[in-house]
Amino acid sequence: MLTLNIPDKYAQARGGWATNHTMKAVYQHMMASKRSAVDDEIDAYYSGLLEQAGNGTPHIV
């Protein structure tokens, strides 16, 4: 459900976990393919900021 971007409240209810902590600590794990996609998204964001800074364009972080 984490990979499908299901909100925590719905995943918790579906899994029957009493607490959000239990769900995250025991049942949620990072998946290599998703991690790679997230890393690419973060890199692209910061690369864009660096390009803007190099052009003298104001930016917000």
Distance between the termini: 30 Å
Helix content: 55-70%
Shape annotation? elongated
Q: What fraction of residues sit in β-strands?
A: under 5%
Structure annotation, total helices: 3
Radius of gyration: 17 Å
Quick one: biggest sheet?
Answer: none
Mean pLDDT: 86
Uncertain residue segments: none
Tell me the number of strands.
0
- Element string (H = helix, E = strand): HHH
Helix- and strand-based class? mainly alpha
Please explain how this structure is put together.
- By secondary structure, the protein is an all-alpha fold.
- 64% of the residues lie in helices and 0% in strands.
- It is built from 3 helices and no strands.
- It has helices at 8-15, 20-27, 32-54.
- The radius of gyration is 17 Å and the shape is elongated.
- The protein starts with 7 loop residues before the first helix and ends in a 7-residue tail after the last helix.
- The relative contact order is 0.10.
- The mean pLDDT is 86.
Question: Summed up, what is this model?
Answer:
The protein is an all-alpha fold and 61 residues long.
Descriptive labels:
64% helix, elongated, mainly alpha, 61 residues, 3 helices
